[in-house]
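User: Hi! I'm working on a homework problem where we have to compare a predicted structure to a textbook description. Could you give me the structure for the chain below?
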Amino acid sequence: MPIHLMEMRFHTYGAIKIFERRKSQFHRLRSLMTYLGIATPIFFAFLVIATSEKLAVISIFTLLIFLILFIQLLISLWSLVAKWDKQYESSIIAITSSYIVYERLNSLINSNCTISSSVLAAIKNDYQALLSEGISGIITDKERCYGYRQSLIKFSQVCPSCQLRPTGMKPSDCELCGKF
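Assistant: Happy to help. Predicted structure tokens:
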């Protein structure tokens, strides 16, 4: 089996793991936004009902509610500026396209058949398309280390930098597989 196919599979698997992690992070942030949007009015209504007879308590709770609303506003602005929705969708698209290429590479590597030059060229084009779509450009160094470590674990390989075979996701001092 050509070594470059295994290398492409290795890096594609790492990209899948990077974008799965990123998707989970944005999912949590988006859920936080949703729950804050639901919880704040309910919390406010509960406090007003519970303390409707005590004016001094209402003013303290009103201040607390405005503080919570201000925090919610800041998180909302942060989500708009950072484009959480777009990044979440981009992560899903990147996972899907990377997974398709990974599965094709996997089936080619695991098959005992000879690979025609046209099939080899097609898979190389698909892999290059992943890279040219910007997937490699939007991955940070920490994410790259994370994906590399995930791939080392999945394929039971030794890191060429630290000469260790990682078994878990505990960060280390290795520049290639540990600083995430």
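For your comparison, note the following. The longest helix spans residues 3-50. Residues 3-139 form one domain. Good luck with the assignment!
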